[in-house]
Write a structure and sequence with these properties.
The chain is mainly alpha-helical. The chain has two domains: about 80 residues, no CATH class; about 60 residues, Winged helix-like DNA-binding domain superfamily/Winged helix DNA-binding domain (Arc Repressor Mutant, subunit A), CATH 1.10.10.10. The protein has seven helices and two strands; from the N terminus they run αααααββαα. The longest helix is centred in the last third of the chain and has 25 residues.
């Protein structure tokens, strides 16, 4: 199948719309299971803390591509929900590290269950092998891009 200019031009839009579809499916599954109040912007912290462990707010903001002030607002919201906590950075007593609470780690498990549900929905559409190949290809793009930014 030849690659058309329209296909190339639609890459960004397609990736963003698939991301939106994933979020909507995830939200639906969480809602069905009675888990509410966690928005996509909150999940930015979960994504980056989950990958990198306890981090400073400025590092989280940079990773999420938002201003540190916006990240601190999200951190405060998640703190008030009992999902994250701040503690002194052992390498710099002036700085604070943000990390999950036990309740936050439990929510990560719920998010993982919802992700498995969405995986199955996508596998039902594409087939498991094709979905796995797609994810592996996207991970290759992601990791290559991350290496170029380091």
């Amino acid at each position: 199948m030849p690659v058309t200019p329209q296909l190339k031009q639609g890459l960004g839009q397609t990736l963003m719309l698939v991301g939106r579809d994933f979020q909507a499916r995830l939200d639906r599954d969480l809602d069905i299971r009675g888990i509410q109040g966690i928005s996509a912007r909150h999940r930015a912290i979960f994504l980056f803390l989950g990958r990198n462990g306890a981090s400073r707010a400025v590092e989280l903001a940079e990773a999420a591509g938002i201003r540190p002030q916006s990240m601190m607002k999200i951190v405060h919201e998640l703190e008030s929900l009992g999902l994250v906590e701040r503690h002194t950075d052992p390498s710099d007593s002036r700085a604070k590290l943000i990390d999950f609470t036990a309740r936050g780690r439990a929510l990560i498990e719920e998010l993982s269950r919802s992700t498995e549900t969405v995986w199955q929905q996508y596998a039902d559409i594409l087939g498991a092998a094709r979905l796995q190949q797609t994810i592996e290809s996207l991970n290759t793009l992601l990791h290559t891009g991350e290496a170029q930014h380091d």
